[in-house]
Specification:
It contains twelve helices and 13 strands. It is an alpha/beta fold. The chain has one domain: Divalent-metal-dependent TIM barrel enzymes (TIM Barrel, Alpha-Beta Barrel), CATH 3.20.20.150. The strands form three sheets. The chain has a nine-stranded parallel β-sheet. A two-stranded antiparallel ribbon has the order 3-4. Strand 8, helix 7 and strand 9 form a beta-alpha-beta unit. The longest helix has 20 residues. The N terminus is likely disordered.
Length: 279
């Protein structure tokens, strides 16, 4: 098998070649993708996965990020779930998953069946996080998983919460993960709400680590510190979206965890703000 760095070099050359082969007027810019993380509708997503997809696509979301992928989606076979999403006119681009170095090849194989583009580890998931060495070990495992996922033709990312910004011996653990992972193997799904909740500035991270943040969770913060309908909080998303290219953002997903009204009503209002103000 090729070394990790040889594999990354080959991958980069293939990516450049593919881009060069696609020239105007034969390449048509795809329709704007507006994503949703289905954890936002977690009360119904697991009980009625197909009905939930119908609800969000009826609202207008055309890019889906499920959660809890274990080779299946809410008990539905990967290929079947992917077909359901596509038949509704949407893309199945990413999913949260309890992936590890032990199951990564199996999960990657099933992800290919589903037509996914990214697998995302949503948290350390029970891995030790008390020391800087703990985070270095997590980074090492992320590289291992990322290599297996890349070999399957997919991307792999890590999603943050606030804990990654609590200093350990004066060091921010999130920086360890960014510095100790290979850019060609591991990208980051920045949860904008949680990074701000953790006391950091997403714009600083975009500038310090350009191109690393291929996926975003767009989640607003109300005056009480809880997540809220996009546009009703105090996060300046226009300023953040202005740096999307520097960040390397490819897909973004609405997420909300606390609700001022019914979750579906919140999703509808957030969709309206995203399309009207962040287009």
């Amino acid at each position: 098998m090729k070394s990790r760095r040889e594999f990354i070099k080959t991958l980069s050359l293939l990516t450049v070649g593919a881009a060069a082969s696609c020239t105007f007027p034969y390449c048509i810019r795809p329709k704007r993708l507006t994503g949703i993380q289905l954890w936002t509708l977690r009360d119904i997503a697991g009980k009625d996965p197909v009905g939930t997809l119908q609800i969000v696509t009826d609202i207008g979301f055309n890019n889906i990020e499920p959660y809890g992928f274990d080779g299946k989606f809410y008990g539905i076979e990967a290929r079947e779930y992917g077909d359901i999403v596509r038949n509704l006119g949407a893309r199945l681009s990413s999913t949260h998953t309890g992936i590890s170095s032990d199951n990564c090849r199996h999960y990657a194989e099933k992800a290919v069946d589903a037509g996914l583009e990214y697998l995302v580890l949503p948290s350390p998931g029970g891995r030790p996080v008390s020391t800087t060495d703990d985070f270095k070990r997590i980074a090492e495992e992320l590289n291992t998983i990322g290599l297996a996922v890349r070999e399957a033709g997919l991307g792999f990312g890590y999603h943050n919460h606030a804990r990654e910004f609590d200093p350990i011996d004066g060091i921010i653990p999130y920086d360890i993960l960014l510095q100790e992972t290979e850019p060609g193997l591991v990208c980051f799904e920045m949860d904008i709400y949680w990074i701000i909740k953790g006391g950091a500035d997403p714009l600083d991270y975009f500038r310090k680590y350009p191109g690393r943040f291929e996926l975003w969770h767009v989640k607003d913060m109300g005056p009480d510190g809880k997540s809220c309908i996009i546009g009703n909080g105090n996060i300046n998303f226009k300023e953040i979206f202005a740096l999307a290219d520097i960040a390397g953002m490819k897909y973004f997903y609405l997420e909300q965890e606390d609700y001022e009204k019914s979750p579906v009503e919140c999703v509808e209002e957030s969709y309206g703000y995203i399309e009207g103000e962040l287009g």
